[in-house]
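User: I'm writing a short methods note and want a consistent example. For Nuclear transport factor 2 family protein, I'll paste the sequence; you return only the structure tokens, no commentary, since I'll be parsing the reply automatically.
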Amino acid sequence: MKLLLLVATTTLLSLLARPARAQNPTPEQLVQQQVDGWNAHDAAAFAAPYADTTALYIYPNQVLKRFKTHDDLQAYYASLFKANPRLHCEVANKMVLKNTVILHEKITGLANRPDSQSLVIYRVEQGKIVSVRFVLD
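Assistant:
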């Protein structure tokens, strides 16, 4: 009986001591991560949730920019943040449907451009943002 209790206790303790399995971030969390990176002007944090190849579109399918590598995307946004030190994104509204996140974004601080707002449609596949479509005002 003591042996059975010892085995059960040891098994329970080993299960409790095991680190929790990291959960994959949801599409909503991935999009929020890039918004946070944008507002911090941190190109690495902004780019982290994106896939290695990513495309930006004017809705529905007019290609705005294609990034062939993750480094290209990060470098592009690093220069954008450097040139626009007051750049900020306010999320006015959000909708989530499976792997699609739609934000109503208000962008301020773009040099030589008025403040703007748009709907932005983020598509997530295999835990990464793969495309972004802008519905402009």
